[in-house]
Amino acid sequence: MAKQHDKQFKEDAVQYYLGHKDLGVKGCAKNLGIGISTLRKWVKESQSENGIQVRGSGNYASDDQKEIAQLRRKLRDTEDALDVLKKAISILGK
């Protein structure tokens, strides 16, 4: 299962790499407990115009968006459970 890292961790990882280039990407990634390609991607993103991107599952622009996503998941799970119960009632009612 992939770990999610916040923007601060990503920025700190890039700074660590920049301060320890003698270790190379491989050594820095190992010390940070992340993949080599992940660190390379973060370094490349940090040099881009937009900076390091923090997107993906679990990363929301605001607490409201996070709550909305959680409520949508709960609603979907509840609707799924209701469908199962409806099917069970129709089977048992025969």
TrEMBL record:
The keyword RNA-binding does not apply. It holds the Pfam family HTH_Tnp_1. Keywords: Coiled coil. Residues 61-88 form a coiled coil. GO terms for biological process: DNA transposition. InterPro entries: Homeodomain-like_sf, Transposase_8. The keyword Transit peptide does not apply. GO terms for molecular function: DNA binding; transposase activity. This is Transposase.
